[in-house]
Amino acid sequence: MEPSDGLRAVADRCAARIDRERLTATLSELISLPSVNPFGGELGDGQGELLVARYLDDRLGRLGWDGDVVEYAPGRYNAVARLAGGGGQVLMLAGHLDTVETTGYPEPFAGAVRGGRVYGRGACDMKAALACYVEAAEVLAAEAVELPGDLVVAGVGDEEYRQEGAKALGLRADGVIIGEPTELVICHATKGLAAYDLTVTGEATHSSVPQHGSNAILGAAALLGSFGEYVRLLERRGHPLLGPPTANVGVIEGGVKPNIVPSSCTVQLSRRLLPGETAAGAREELVGVLAGAGGSARWSLGDSWWTVEPYELPAGHPLGGVVAVAAELSGLADTVPRGFPGSSDAAYFGSPVVLFGPGSLAQAHSLDEWVPVEEMVTATEVYLRSALAFGG
Hints:
Elements: H1 5-16, H2 20-31, H3 49-61, E1 66-73, E2 76-83, E3 91-96, E4 113-114, E5 117-119, H4 123-143, E6 151-156, H5 164-168, E7 175-178, E8 187-190, E9 192-201, H6 216-224, H7 227-235, E10 247-254, E11 264-273, H8 279-292, E12 298-301, E13 306-308, E14 311-312, H9 318-329, E15 338-340, E16 353-355, E17 370-372, H10 373-389
């Protein structure tokens, strides 16, 4: 539904107030705050989600938002801030505070700006969106706009691993926009993830008489010989927004020395899940594939030790239409909903979710991460127009 002339005029004024220099500076400051996810290990000195949570709380608090920083687990934090509006529906702008590691990344926290881009760890995944949320708050304060309903900004922890921040949030909204790097494409669905350990057991012996033992690595190789066929089988399935599920052999470990027949080998497998699929169901399917490979190897496939649930916005939900109109009015020609190929914490907010944000997955997790400033400006405008229209 098109906004009224009055609402559109307010939105146009807000869009004109977006300050690209302030927006860029905010992202550089966020990048300078190391918030590397420890992935189950110990936090590095002077690092952690608390740094980013406090930054958001301070910036939004100075603009009159009611905020709080919550320790949801020892050393792990969420930040939540609310701008009170009218009696309409509540919209949440959500994003994760953590980033992946920086090993091999030169100057990951410099937040350098050059050539219309901002560089550094977390630049697109996804501190750019957090900076856009702060800029939207600055604009709303400058224009003294009362929104139709409350607007919430939620910075959550642990998205890169087990999504514990979103799970612990305990806050529901009528609609959620997550600013993952979608290249300004509106995404109504996201794949999930399930990771499994395949353990192959052999019998060690001297490498000069291998017939007296059983080589676990060769046994694993025989089992994986059918993996290509399995991948091709998955390619024949499909989801209207996400396409087919995928599978990957990510890690293989085994053996002690080259002159010893290895007695054990462990393979880490992953499977991207489509909406409607479960980690247990995907495991059962994998067991069938491995059993069909034949051979005499003794093996077992464990339950998923890392699971991220898939998500899909309910068909016809008004949030999708609000974001599409906001994107169109912000100058985006393509507003057709698509799927986000990576996993996210969308399933854990307990609310309808659309994914939309600046930057690309091609740069996320890389050793040269960057985001275009122009995409951040456009994303900020879309977030502003969505906040002004949602539930009004």
